[in-house]
Amino acid sequence: MSVVALAGGVGGARLVDGLDRVLPPGSLTAIVNTGDDFEHWGLHISPDLDTVMYTLAGLSPEDRGWGIDGDTFEVLREVRCRGIDDWFQLGDRDLVTHLVRTQALALGQSLTQATAKLCDSLGVERPILPMSDAPCPTSILTKNGEELAFQEWLVKERAAPSVSEARLGGMGETTAAVLAALKAADLILICPSNPYVSIDPILRLAGVSEAVRRTPTVAVSPILNGNAVKGPLAGMILEIGGRPPSAESVAIHYNGLLDGFAVQHGDSFGAAYPTLETNILIQTRQDRIRFALELIEFARDLT
Amino acid sequence: MSVVALAGGVGGARLVDGLDRVLPPGSLTAIVNTGDDFEHWGLHISPDLDTVMYTLAGLSPEDRGWGIDGDTFEVLREVRCRGIDDWFQLGDRDLVTHLVRTQALALGQSLTQATAKLCDSLGVERPILPMSDAPCPTSILTKNGEELAFQEWLVKERAAPSVSEARLGGMGETTAAVLAALKAADLILICPSNPYVSIDPILRLAGVSEAVRRTPTVAVSPILNGNAVKGPLAGMILEIGGRPPSAESVAIHYNGLLDGFAVQHGDSFGAAYPTLETNILIQTRQDRIRFALELIEFARDLT
Hints:
Two copies of one chain form a homodimer.
Chain A: E1 3-7, H1 10-22, E2 28-32, E3 38-40, E4 43-45, H2 47-56, H3 74-81, H4 92-106, H5 111-122, E5 128-130, E6 138-142, E7 147-149, H6 150-156, E8 163-168, H7 176-184, E9 187-190, H8 195-203, H9 208-214, E10 217-220, E11 223-224, E12 227-228, H10 233-241, H11 247-253, E13 260-264, E14 275-278, H12 285-302
Parallel strand pairs in A: 1-2, 1-9, 2-5, 9-10, 10-13, 13-14
Antiparallel strand pairs in A: 3-4, 6-7, 6-8, 11-12
Helix pairs in contact in A: 1-2, 1-12, 4-5
């Protein structure tokens, strides 16, 4: 069975990590959101790609959703001494990822090629594909009428300004690698990532939602008992979707795309398709493996 | 009195540092070689500009000719883990300089502007001007017929391959800032830097040697009692110049440009212009100040 996972940051990375451990070699591809990508200190940062890579490499910290466990911050300290923008914290080891990526792009390589090279240097064997090689910058329109680049809103402004819209930018060509993975897919999994700013940027690329419609697709709810595990999603469902933060609201957002849905114990609703109700909290690697096995078993019955 | 110093790396930086401490504000400009500039990890490195800046900022180590005293090497350590080229050692604090410069250049600023910005962030007030805003890469032709970029020869190959020629590349326009400084100069000092790869790249730029000819010019010998204080100069005088490494050989190289020459005790020769024979070793700041005062006094009598 060939499985494609559509993924954003931490939640996506954790599910991909679980799948990575239970699926046979060659059967899993992660297509990762690049709408959060931005330039910082002149470097090309891909927060979601990095989170997925670091998680699969076993380098992600347990206690925060970014960077490398045990990283040092000597460069950041000097940046602060010199009065340079320090709102986005890059660790010293993490920085090497951005240097390698920026250099590869400057030499004319694609983001897909740069990501393969980075995975290789980190010992990550599963294909991790950026959703696009072209810039697709997501911005946040606030209720005050400001438009902020996504990372500025999320990190610099700590997601405080109320959101009226997530504006998905760019309209790059879908890459050959992404299209090939989708074509070969027997199952598409929509990871427990933010629908507005992690999954929608992937779905809107040419050919992706078509592939989702023709392929058995299961989503995992990023909302558990009314709360997001991490990040600003609960508030965004209220502010953008005008609905209470719930698994059902997420399902409504994915209207017409799903053949199955995995939710936390107690979050079932009267869906028109099968629902897997279980413990979908996957912070530890043990839980990731346990849930990935349940999810694959559930999905196998649908395909 | 308006003084312009033509400078390369460590020796140049130390003389500029001494002059910086004895000349009144507004009277000193350093024009610095950029023939050694190169790209590493996708960053624009300007070794000589950095050495001059760090020395004036009081950040240079006593025991080595590059980087920042007490710097850490966390990024380099990760670079090594990932199997990336590690022959040019960049410290974590040093790295910020290259990030800032690379970003400024990518945004369309000139190297002159980027250098001013860096000086500002390091608290360096004297104007430090790159000799050119355009690439002028120096390469080394070896006796084996190889052509190596200068830093590759110097650092990666540890200056081991015998040299047949220093090839000075590019022919950028002399910048307005350099021409203005030279025009205003009452005195030009040629620092104790490598004539072939630090000073010649400056002298060959349009308008520079003309300015040197029309302005009282004093050189400081980079050879002391037959040896270079640092670097590969002694061998290069033999291999390129076909002469013994001596202050006199350096003076012959600068044939027709000098109105005075400062040499180490015992290094006088029958020059046709006044010679200052003193202790020209300027490793400590105390020695730099002492020698700068002597040099300015000597030069004042010539102008």
